[in-house]
Design goal:
- It is a single chain.
- With 147 residues, this protein is of the alpha+beta class.
- Helices cover 37% and strands 24% of the residues.
- Bound molecules: adenosine-5'-triphosphate (ATP) and magnesium ion (MG).
- The site of adenosine-5'-triphosphate has 22 residues, from α3 and α6.
Length: 147
């Protein structure tokens, strides 16, 4: 049985392809557009846009591909970014500002400042990262709508 709350919920899902720089950023733009149509506060939209963009780019650049799922509830938004590996060996190092394993080619495109994960954490009301070498990286991000 679904209760009244779940009937109002919206779930968005985006498959993100590895190395697909031509479409990179499309998922986060689309999420932003839908939140605008729903009349969500611009401060919340900005936070969701930042975290989804950084998660999307990390999947494109650092992973074998993955999926971003956004669930919109009346009082919060949950974003789950899950990829198909190769995982992160040292999470605390990856979370440090300025740490990046991006190639010189990727840096030429303007990425690789090592600021994506720290920015995701900064703009989240709740943030968890689960990863290990040889498996998926899973980010679970909550952004509150009513503070
Ligand atoms: N989904 C992922 N899979 C594997 N490794 C990842 C993933 N996301 C991040 N990493 C690792 O963590 C490091 C730090 O990520 P972060 O997003 O902070 O910086 P960046 O992507 O290198 O640069 P920027 O985000 O500033 O363009 C990456 O360089 C990479 O080594
Ligand atoms: Mg990044």
């Amino acid at each position: 049985m679904r209760n009244d709350e779940t009937i109002n919920n919206i779930k968005l899902e985006y498959d993100i392809l590895k190395d697909d720089f031509s479409r990179a950023g499309e998922a986060s733009s689309n999420i932003k557009k839908i939140l605008r149509q729903l009349g969500i506060d611009s401060t919340i939209i900005r936070k969701v846009a930042i975290v989804t963009y950084e998660a999307e780019m990390n999947i494109v650049i650092h992973s074998e591909g993955g999926r971003i799922t956004v669930e919109i509830y009346p009082t919060f938004v949950i974003i789950i970014a899950k990829d198909e590996g190769p995982g992160i060996e040292n999470i605390s190092l990856a979370m440090q500002e300025g740490f990046s394993t991006a190639s010189s080619k990727v840096r030429e495109l303007g990425f690789g400042a090592g600021m994506g994960l720290p920015n995701i954490e900064k703009h989240s009301d709740d943030f968890s990262i689960k990863s290990e070498k040889g498996s998926s990286t899973i980010l679970t991000i909550t952004i509150n709508i009513n503070e």
